[in-house]
Design goal:
The complex is a heterotrimer. Chain A is α/β, with parallel strands linked by helices. Helices cover 39% and strands 27% of the residues of chain A. Chain A has a single domain, classed as P-loop containing nucleotide triphosphate hydrolases (Rossmann fold), CATH 3.40.50. The longest helix of chain A has 16 residues. The chains are: A alpha/beta, B mainly alpha, C mainly alpha.
């Protein structure tokens, strides 16, 4: 009964985070972060470098060992679960530094992306989808990941993330280190992924192309959420303008 | 003279093949988990003693012995990793601590063998009697089988790494542990499983070589040092490097032993190793990092 | 621990040790054990300095000890050098070899350094036993059976009267621990902390990793060789048995009990371990089994040794400041 009630309250919320605290050794990185993501949305979290954005995404994905607080995914508590269980439930992290397998081919990297049990049965279908989205990867299936350029490796990282059959993607600074034209492409791909029905939570420094995609914006400063609202609301906020837009 | 040289080459090849099997196991643990296992030699003896006990239970078929010993060794390796190495991984200075705990384990195991089985050496029956004779030149079936088993073991393992999902996950963890975790590979399980696989490999080496060189409580140290030298020589973490290095070491040992005497083999090995490391600090095929 | 505290702990340890002969002086066996404790406390402290502080996985400590012991015995026998000078010469030989080993080693990474240094240990036995060894005067596999006892200004230290030698070794141990303390306290120590944290960053700051590491290699092998010399002139005979894995592990137990990088833990560890080893010796073949099991259990349960345990029990000074990341 309680579970049903809770589901009714949360309704369409896919991710609901309450009072999340995360630590690296003795560093208290995230302090009582609460936020939520509705199914089908693109949510963008902005924030200066080193204020805990990556830690935030990694905490959701079970990649930070010291985490306190509640993380609900479709009504299930996932805080403290092992990373492989979380991946299996449909949450995938796409790392800012890509974390590819350097001495595996593109195809092998993609296959490893479909490692989790829930993804294995969909491997073939997802591979086709990924090649549709990234035609360039299809021509390079036998290339070693270590020999790819920065932009290609970024695409491969995103493609590998999609292979997990995820319903929720946590994307860490996808435009980091990319040239402006590639940033446009990343933005386009994220939009396409979202249209295909995958919920996306992105963290970025302020990149206009990416921020433009957001259904909802959050700002994380010094481990705390300092703003929550729509794009328009963000534009009306003087503090945000100052730090991100330099106005 | 010519026959002698051919004999030396063959003995080098056969020892080299078993060394390769064992060095691949050692390089595997290092490559995947960056842990160094000082008890590796004790697992070599463990293989010999496990086989000795199986023979003691009147099971005289080598195929059966391998089929029984492999899961026993796997289980022992798995439990040892889970109980002793895994808890250390989260600590500061864990590499030193892993070396320390495995060294302690080695002392414990070797002396336990001595108490349980006695200091005298144990012999295992020959896998297959008889030999091929070509003129002056004799090649025993035993040596042929040792060679085939070792190479077969390595090839099977290579196939496992390249073509199965589990094998690929082992490579993934070795290449990028963080990336492996991201795609949902249970890292801790892979660490334990590779440790267990390497235990099986060195234990099998122990069974194969026990027919020729007996089983003794302290016999593993020599094997640890040789596997270690081969691993470093080939490049730690590089399976291909270990393969080449194992045959080079096997040959070198055979020739030095034949020409200068067995006392010189270890010295010659280290001389070659040091020269290699002075020129290529990462070994023949190793990579930094 | 800060340096002042280390100095105080050292003073307390050596103060207590200095009065031990009052209780044990009448039994030669106990005095012998105490002398061994002093000798191994220096070797273990040197190992701690190179491994715990400098972060170099050197596994050649026993080898340098044996090199020192043999050198001193041979130098005093062959050249008629008085033992007190021979031990210093032995230290120089060990230190020189330490530099020779260190030169190729320090370009290598962790596990490779362990291999090369352990390799020195492993090949020492065939070298000392073989033709090369016999040519230098190691006595081959028989070993060296008669070594001149230590004498200073005409006073001869006899192993039948161990108390004077105990105080001589105590003096040596005090000086060695003071040197180690000075090293940890000096800019070497700071450099090592920086190197351990991030070698790249420290190199950027102009800390030459190579230079510092080579110096610490030289210093620790010199001190270890020196103490090896004192050992040789005390026991009066040497064989390659010392190179067995038993002694190596004993030394490791000392470090595990004392705590890696927790100087002066190694000194406390030496006294506990050597005493324990003697207590266990009636158990015969079970002694090394227990010793091995002890290492396993202690590494798991006592991660930072005795010093770590004490630090945990004593209330920490304010270091819980929240730091922004």
């Amino acid at each position: 009964m309680i579970q049903g009630l809770l589901n009714a309250i949360w309704g369409m919320l896919m991710i609901k985070i309450e009072n999340l605290n995360a630590y690296y050794d003795d560093f208290h990185v995230l302090k009582n972060v609460s936020m939520s993501v509705e199914e089908g949305q693109i949510v963008v979290m902005l924030g200066p470098n080193g204020h805990g954005k990556s830690t935030f995404l990694k905490s959701i994905c079970g990649l930070v060992s010291k985490v306190k607080g509640s993380i609900m995914f479709n009504g299930t508590q996932i805080s403290g679960l092992a990373a492989e269980k979380i991946v299996n439930m449909g949450i995938t992290y796409i790392a800012e530094n890509r974390e590819l397998f350097p001495e595996m081919t593109v195809l092998e990297n993609l296959k490893m992306g479909a490692y989790s049990k829930s993804a294995r049965t969909h491997e073939k279908k997802n591979l086709e989808k990924v090649f549709e989205l990234f035609p360039r990867l299809k021509n390079r299936v036998n290339q070693m990941a270590s020999t790819m350029s920065g932009g290609e490796a970024r695409m491969l990282a995103i493609a590998r993330g999609l292979m997990s059959n995820a319903r929720f993607l946590a994307v860490d600074e996808p435009s980091l280190g990319l040239q402006p034209n590639l940033r446009d492409e990343v933005a386009r791909i994220i939009k396409e992924i979202n249209i295909a029905g995958i919920t996306v939570l992105l963290v970025e420094q302020n990149i206009p192309q990416i921020t433009e995609l957001a259904d909802q914006l959050y700002v994380l400063e010094e481990g705390q959420i300092t703003f929550e609202g729509s794009k328009d609301e963000a534009l009306g906020n003087d503090h945000l303008k100052e730090i991100f837009l330099g106005m | 003279m010519l026959v002698e040289i051919i004999d030396v080459i063959i003995s080098g090849m056969i020892n080299g093949s078993v060394y390769a099997l064992m060095a691949v196991g050692l390089t595997l643990i290092y490559g995947v988990s960056k842990a160094f296992n000082f008890a590796y030699g004790s697992f070599y003896s463990m293989g010999g003693y496990v086989a000795f006990m199986i023979f003691g239970a009147h099971i005289n078929n080598y195929i059966l012995v391998f089929c029984l010993a492999a899961p026993i060794l796997f289980l022992l390796g798995y439990l040892i990793e889970k109980a002793l190495v895994a808890p250390l991984r989260k600590r500061d200075d864990w590499e030193i601590k892993v070396m320390m705990i495995t060294l302690g384990l080695a002392l414990f195991l070797d002396n336990s063998y001595q108490v349980i089985f006695g200091a005298r050496m144990k012999s295992l029956p020959t896998i297959l009697e008889g030999s091929i004779e070509l003129g002056d030149f004799i090649l025993s079936y035993q040596d042929i089988i040792i060679f085939i088993f070792s190479i077969g073991g390595i090839l099977a393992f290579r196939w496992f790494l390249n073509n199965t999902r589990t094998g690929m996950s082992v490579r993934a963890v070795a290449q990028n542990p963080a990336g492996a975790q991201i795609v949902g590979i249970p890292k801790e399980f892979v660490f334990s499983a590779t440790f267990a696989i390497s235990t099986v490999m060195v234990g099998m080496g122990g069974i194969l070589l026990a027919q020729k060189y007996f089983v003794t409580p302290m016999g593993g140290w020599d094997i640890l040092v040789k596997s270690w030298v081969i691993t470093a020589f080939g490049g730690m973490g590089s399976i291909k490097g270990s393969l080449y290095a194992a045959f080079i070491v096997g040959m070198l040992e055979a020739f030095v032993g034949w020409h200068f005497g067995m006392n010189w083999t270890l010295i010659a090995l280290f001389a070659v190793l040091l020269t290699t490391l002075a020129i290529r600090p990462q070994g023949l095929m190793g990579k930094w990092g | 621990m800060d340096h002042k505290r280390i100095a105080i702990v050292l003073a307390v340890i050596w103060g207590v040790v200095a009065i031990l002969p009052v209780f044990f002086g009448s039994t030669n066996l106990y005095m012998h054990i105490l002398i061994m404790c002093l000798i191994w406390s220096v070797v273990a402290s040197c190992w701690d300095l190179i491994m715990g502080f400098a972060g170099i996985f050197s596994f050649g400590q026993v080898a340098f000890f044996v090199i020192g012991a043999y050198s001193s015995a041979i130098i005093s026998a062959k050249f008629g050098v008085p033992p007190i000078f021979a031990v210093f010469a032995a230290g120089v030989v060990a230190g020189g070899l330490g530099v020779l080993v260190g030169l190729p080693c320090l370009k290598l990474k962790g596990a490779y350094i362990a291999l090369v240094t352990f390799a020195v240990h492993m090949i020492l036995e065939p070298v000392l036993k073989g033709d090369i060894g016999r040519a230098i005067g190691t006595g081959g596999s028989r070993g060296i059976l008669t070594i001149e006892p230590m004498n200073i200004f005409g006073y001869t230290f006899l192993s039948s009267e161990p108390i004077p030698y105990f105080y001589l070794m105590l003096l040596v141990a005090i000086i060695c621990s003071a040197i180690i303390l000075i090293v940890i306290k000096s800019h070497w120590g700071t450099a090592f902390l920086a190197l351990k944290d991030s070698e790249d960053f420290a190199t950027c700051l102009g800390v030459s990793a190579f230079k510092y590491k080579l110096r610490v290699f030289a210093l620790t092998s010199f001190l270890t060789g020196l103490v090896g010399g004192f050992y040789a002139h005390y026991v009066g005979m040497l064989s390659t048995r010392m190179l067995g894995i038993d002694l190596f592990v004993t030394l490791m137990v000392i470090l595990v009990i004392g705590g890696v990088g927790k100087f002066p833990g190694a000194i406390i560890g030496a006294f506990i371990t050597i005493a324990l080893n003697e207590l266990l010796s009636p158990l015969g073949p079970y002694r090394p089994i227990i010793l091995g099991a002890l290492v396993v259990v202690l590494v798991l349960l006592l991660p930072d040794g005795i010093i770590g345990l004490i630090q945990k029990i004593l209330p920490k000074k304010n270091n819980g400041l929240p730091i922004e990341s």
